[in-house]
Write the structure tokens for this entry.
Amino acid sequence: MLDVVGTLARLGLAAVWLVSGTLKAADPDQTYVAVRAYDVLPTGGVEVVAAVLPFLEIALGLLLLAGVGTRAAAVLSAALLLVFVVGVAQAWARGLSIDCGCFGGGGAVAPGDTAYLQELMRDTSFLVLAAWLIVRPRTLLSIDSRFGGRT
């Protein structure tokens, strides 16, 4: 039963990364706007993050989908999710009115249109999936399990 839970966690987290990365890659200009809206990086940093982030998310999604290096992909996922949680929390604390851009879009919004609590709860639930896979990376239908690997 635990392998089934792990498999659902792995595939769910893979879907999150594949959808979010693909939506960001499809609209790089909007991804730049979303990253810039957090107002924490210099212009050069915004450009690098906006260019790399979609492909990092897609890579994590593909690794998790295939079940290759599951624990390592989960650790990287958790680290990235923690960065997202901190980013949203600091935007909220600073009184910025932005959409997170987590699944495409993003940037400035009207003050009443922010959804910080929902975004933090959602990202925390994704973090729980990653934590499960860090603690117990064994899943069904994975390349790791096929070749006797556990991570």
